[in-house]
Amino acid sequence: MKKIKVKAYAKINLSLDVLGKREDGYHEISTIMQSIDLADILGFEKSDTIEILCDNPKVPVGEDNLIVKVINLLKEKYQKKEGILVRLNKKIPLAAGLAGGSADAAATIVALDKLWNLNMSKEEKKEIALKVGADVPFCLEGGTKLAKGIGEIFENLKVPSMSLLLVKPDIEISTKEIYDKWDRLNFKSHHATFLVAQAIQEGNIYKIAENIKNDLELVTSRECEVINQIKEELLKKGALGCAMSGSGPTVYGIFDDLERLKRAYEDLKEVYSFVFFSKTIDKGLELYE
Ligand code: ATP
């Protein structure tokens, strides 16, 4: 095999409780992560050098790219001399709280496992994933998961299919800065994860929508008033519930009425730079040969 294509799906957080800071600097969280139908497309081709060709000039293509981090970790671990050419068709907005970079990193692990015949076990893939970032292990598996620790200890959940409207205001957020401010501001967690997990187990989309909540919203919305504005607009336009994803700034609403969702989409796309109609899906990656 010389080439492989991977579709790498974004995620949203149906809940995010920040429980404390660990000695290694990471935060202990309890969160429900959900794959959604919004994906980057990555083409991998065997090559002598490492090169990333991306259609979005804002994406770093050197050592800072999580794809390059994965390539270098795998080269070192498996003593590989060759490089790889990656064509990255970027559809997931950057620094949006949707784990775009992490999804690309997960795609790189599975692609190189195949192209370089590494025969990696599930544990070996997860180990590399965790070295690259806290969201990468989730992106390898995808679906709906209750995640604990720094986001790497999973319990599988099965969510009823839900239609979503994503709205991202034209600002980019640094995850690290938001967590640093969380620590300084001494906020208390809402502990929403338990309630959302219960609603998911009952298969009740109304109860899910009523309970979705993200602790980090307290920090991000302090600086970006637009987060609360988008939430109000989504609710006014018929969303059953809404919340911010990750450290933001993307906000999503859950809808049970497609006509209302379409109207909300038409109205909001006049105002915000990224408005996307999506749905929940049960996988994180899709491979094509
Ligand atoms: P998370 O939800 O996991 O916190 P995010 O969606 O908020 O992540 P990303 O889109 O992953 O954020 O990007 C954050 C920064 O990481 C970008 O601004 C960019 O500089 C850098 N980056 C590194 N690799 C990638 C990649 N493959 N795609 C996009 N950004 C990348």
TrEMBL record:
A Pfam family in this protein?
GHMP_kinases_N
Which controlled-vocabulary keywords does the entry list?
ATP-binding, Isoprene biosynthesis, Kinase, Nucleotide-binding, Transferase
GO BP, one annotated term: isopentenyl diphosphate biosynthetic process, methylerythritol 4-phosphate pathway
Which Enzyme Commission numbers does its entry carry?
A: 2.7.1.148
Biological pathway: Isoprenoid biosynthesis; isopentenyl diphosphate biosynthesis via DXP pathway; isopentenyl diphosphate from 1-deoxy-D-xylulose 5-phosphate: step 3/6
Enzyme class, top EC level, equals transferase
Q: Where is the GHMP kinase N-terminal domain?
A: 65-143
Active site as annotated: 11, 135
* Catalytic reactions of this protein: 4-CDP-2-C-methyl-D-erythritol + ATP = 4-CDP-2-C-methyl-D-erythritol 2-phosphate + ADP + H(+)
Q: Which Gene3D superfamilies match?
A: 3.30.230.10, GHMP kinase, C-terminal domain
Q: Which SUPFAM superfamilies match?
A: GHMP Kinase, C-terminal domain (SSF55060), Ribosomal protein S5 domain 2-like (SSF54211)
Kindly indicate whether the keyword Transmembrane belongs to this entry. Answer: no
UniProt: ATP binding residues: 93-103
Instruction: Please give the InterPro entries that the UniProt record associates with this protein.
Output: GHMP_kinase_C_dom, GHMP_kinase_C_sf, GHMP_kinase_N_dom, IspE, Ribosomal_Su5_D2-typ_SF, Ribsml_uS5_D2-typ_fold_subgr
Q: Where is the GHMP kinase C-terminal domain?
A: 197-272
- Which GO MF terms does the UniProt record name? 4-(cytidine 5'-diphospho)-2-C-methyl-D-erythritol kinase activity; ATP binding
HAMAP family given for it?
Answer: IspE
Q: Family, per the entry?
A: Belongs to the GHMP kinase family. IspE subfamily.
Q: What's this chain's function?
A: Catalyzes the phosphorylation of the position 2 hydroxy group of 4-diphosphocytidyl-2C-methyl-D-erythritol.
* Name of this protein: 4-diphosphocytidyl-2-C-methyl-D-erythritol kinase
Source organism of this protein record: Thermoanaerobacter wiegelii Rt8.B1
Q: Which gene encodes it?
A: ispE
